[in-house]
Design brief:
Layout: E1 14-19, H1 24-39, E2 47-53, H2 59-75, H3 83-90, E3 93-97, H4 103-120, E4 126-130, H5 137-146, E5 157-161, H6 169-179, E6 188-190, H7 198-208, E7 222-230, H8 239-243, H9 246-264, H10 273-286, E8 295-298, E9 303-305, E10 308-310, E11 328-333, E12 345-350, E13 357-364, E14 384-390, E15 394-402, E16 410-418, H11 419-422, H12 432-440, H13 449-468, H14 485-492
Parallel strand pairs: 1-2, 1-4, 2-3, 4-5, 5-6, 7-12
Antiparallel strand pairs: 7-13, 8-11, 9-10, 11-12, 13-14, 14-15, 15-16
Helix pairs in contact: 1-2, 1-3, 6-13, 9-10, 9-13, 10-13
This protein binds 6-O-phosphono-beta-D-glucopyranose.
C-alpha cells in the first residue's frame, strides 16, 4: 500500500529472481501481476527478472512461454495484451536453468546478478521470490546465504516466501529459526495472497476511516461473526499436496485468520508495518485454545455440480481410497479480550460447495421487541453487515424497514455498495500491490514470524486431536451443498444458523 500522497511512484531499480520460474504460481499470478504493474508504469525504472528452475529453457523460450500463457489468460475475459508494457517486462527477462539443491546454481546466479547490476545500475537491490514447493524454502535460504547473496554493500536483499509456512507450530518455528539465521526479520516477506485482495485491505479503511463503525464494533453491539470461504472447485490436480495438507492447514491459520485479524484487531497507531502486525498478532494470541467440540470437518463425496457428474474426494487422482483428509472445516473461535469476549467467530471453508463466495458477516444484537408486541410483526429481522470479499466485491447492510401500506409490516431490506459500480478498476490478479510493496520495502501486508507462529498455535490442538482420531463417516457432504450436517450443528447448539451459501 503506497502511503505517499498522489499517485504511487515507480519503486527503486532492482532485480527480481523467481525460483520456480516454470511453476503455476509464476505463470498465473506473479508474471501477470508484473505485467499489470508495467501497464500502470509501476515497474522499477531499471528492472531485471531472472527465472531459475530445473527445466532446460533459454531466455527466449521462457519469455515466449510466459507471453503465450498471459495471452491465454487475457483471452478468457480480460483485456488483450498491450505491446509496450509487455516489451518492457519481456526485455527484462532472463532464465537460468539450475537445480535448487546444487551450489553451482547459486554461483552462476551470483555472476549473472553482478553482470546485470553492472549493465543496468540496479543499485545492488535484489528480491528473491520463492515460488517453489515449501520443502525448498529452508534450503534456498541456506544456499543463498552460502553464496553470499543475502547481503550487499550497496542495496537491499529481500526474500518473499509463499505459503504453506510450516505444517504445524513446530515446523513453522523450525523454519523461522532456520531462515532467521541468515536473514533479518525485515528482509523476510511471508506472503498470504488474501491480503492482496482490495476488499481485505479495505476492512481497515472501513473500520478506521469512518466514525460510525468502530463505536459499535464490539461485544456490546455484535452478537456473532461468520466468516465463510466457500469454493466450488474440488482439489483439481493437487491430490498429492492436499493429502498431506487438508482444508484446515490449507486455509485456516493463513487466509481465514487474516480475515479474523482484520475484523478483530485493535486500531494500530500508524500504518507502520510493525504497528499493524503487532495488533494482528495480539488477536491470534487472544484466541482461546480450541476445544475439539468447537471444530468439525467434512469430505465431499461423488455427485453432480451444475448438472455435471463430479468425483468424490477419494476418487480424485493421487488420493487414498480410504483417505480421512478433510475438504471442509468449520470452527467456533472465542477471542478472550475486552472487545470480543462472548462473541463467537464461526469460520467455515470447503471445496465443492454450492457457490464460490468469501464473506465476513457481522450480526448485530437485536432491537427489543416490546413496541411491536401488539402488531402483526412477529419478529424483528436481524441487522447484518456483510463484507463481500469475492467474487461480487462489495458491502451490504441489512436492516428492517416498514413495508409501504396502511398495515404495520416490516421487511428486512438491503443497502448495497458494489466496488464495480463505484470504482473504475483495471484488471488485477491480486499480487500487484503485494509485489509493489516488496519492491518499496513495505511489509505491512506480510506476516511476521510471531504472527505465523501464533496462528499455528491457535489451531494446533485440533491438528493434534484429528491426527489421533480419524472420523468414521467420510464422505459426509454432497458436492454443491453447504457442507456437512455437523457444521450446522455447531451453530444450532448456540441457537444460531449459518447464512445460506448462494
Ligand atoms: C490457496 C489454497 O492458498 O488459496 C487453495 O491453497 C485455495 O486451496 C486458494 O483454492 C483460494 O484462493 P482464492 O484467492 O481463489 O480465494
Amino acid at each position: 500500500m503506497s502511503m505517499s500522497p498522489g499517485s504511487p511512484k515507480p519503486p527503486p531499480s532492482c532485480a527480481m529472481v523467481i525460483f520456480g520460474a516454470n511453476g503455476d504460481l509464476t505463470k498465473r499470478l506473479v508474471v501477470p501481476a508484473l505485467y499489470n504493474l508495467s501497464k500502470s508504469d509501476l515497474l522499477p525504472p531499471q528492472f531485471a527478472l531472472v527465472g531459475v528452475d530445473h527445466n532446460n529453457k533459454t531466455d527466449q523460450t521462457w519469455r515466449s512461454d510466459l507471453h503465450d500463457f498471459l495471452e491465454q489468460l487475457s483471452g478468457s475475459g480480460g483485456a488483450k495484451i498491450e505491446q509496450a508494457p509487455w516489451d518492457k517486462l519481456g526485455s527484462a527477462m532472463s532464465y537460468l536453468p539450475g537445480d535448487f539443491t546444487d551450489p553451482a546454481t547459486f554461483q552462476k546466479l551470483r555472476r549473472h546478478l553482478d553482470e546485470l547490476d553492472a549493465k543496468q545500475q540496479l543499485g545492488g537491490n535484489v528480491l528473491f521470490y520463492f515460488a517453489t514447493a515449501d520443502r525448498f524454502f529452508g534450503p534456498l535460504v541456506d544456499a543463498l546465504a552460502q553464496a553470499d547473496l543475502l547481503k550487499s554493500d550497496k542495496g537491499w536483499r529481500r526474500v518473499v516466501i509463499e505459503k504453506p509456512f510450516g505444517h504445524d507450530l513446530e515446523s513453522a518455528k523450525a523454519l523461522n529459526t532456520r531462515i532467521l539465521k541468515s536473514l533479518r526479520e525485515d528482509q523476510v516477506y511471508r506472503i498470504d495472497h488474501f491480503l492482496g485482495k482490495e476488499t481485505v485491505q479495505n476492512i481497515m479503511a472501513l473500520r478506521f476511516a469512518n466514525g460510525m463503525f468502530e463505536p459499535i464494533w464490539n461485544r456490546d453491539r455484535i452478537d456473532h461473526v461468520q466468516i465463510t470461504v466457500a469454493e466450488t472447485l474440488g482439489i483439481e490436480s493437487r491430490g498429492k499436496f492436499y493429502e498431506s495438507t487438508g482444508a484446515l492447514r490449507d486455509m485456516v491459520p493463513n487466509h481465514l485468520f487474516q480475515l479474523v485479524a482484520m475484523m478483530a484487531m485493535e486500531p494500530p497507531t500508524s500504518f507502520d508495518p510493525d504497528a499493524v502486525r503487532a495488533k494482528k498478532a495480539e488477536v491470534f494470541k487472544a484466541v482461546h485454545p480450541l476445544a475439539l467440540t468447537n471444530a468439525v470437518r467434512g469430505q465431499y463425496g461423488a455427485g453432480t455440480m451444475e448438472g455435471k457428474p463430479v468425483r468424490g474426494y477419494r476418487e480424485e487422482d493421487n488420493v487414498a481410497k480410504d483417505s480421512f483428509v478433510e475438504t471442509f472445516v468449520a470452527l467456533r473461535l472465542s477471542i478472550d479480550n475486552w472487545r470480543w469476549a462472548g462473541v463467537p467467530f464461526y469460520l467455515r471453508t470447503g471445496k465443492r460447495l454450492a457457490k464460490r463466495t468469501t464473506e465476513i458477516a457481522i450480526r448485530f444484537r437485536e432491537a427489543p421487541y416490546m413496541l411491536f408486541r401488539d402488531t402483526p410483526v412477529d419478529e424483528l429481522g436481524a441487522n447484518w453487515l456483510i463484507l463481500q470479499i469475492q467474487p461480487d466485491e462489495g458491502i451490504r447492510l441489512r436492516f428492517n424497514a416498514k413495508r409501504p401500506g396502511p398495515e404495520l409490516a416490516l421487511e428486512n431490506v438491503a443497502m448495497d455498495f458494489r466496488y464495480s459500480d463505484w470504482f473504475k478498476q483495471s484488471p488485477a490478479v491480486g499480487y500487484e500491490t503485494l509485489l509493489y510493496d516488496c519492491f518499496t520495502g513495505d511489509a505491512t501486508l506480510f506476516q511476521r514470524a510471531d504472527q505465523v507462529e501464533a496462528a499455528w498455535a491457535a489451531v494446533e490442538p485440533v491438528l493434534d486431536a484429528w491426527k489421533q482420531k480419524p472420523v468414521e463417516a467420510f464422505p459426509n457432504y454432497a458436492p454443491g451443498s453447504a457442507g456437512p450436517a455437523c457444521a450446522d450443528e455447531l451453530l444450532k447448539r448456540d441457537g444460531r444458523a449459518w447464512r445460506a451459501i448462494r
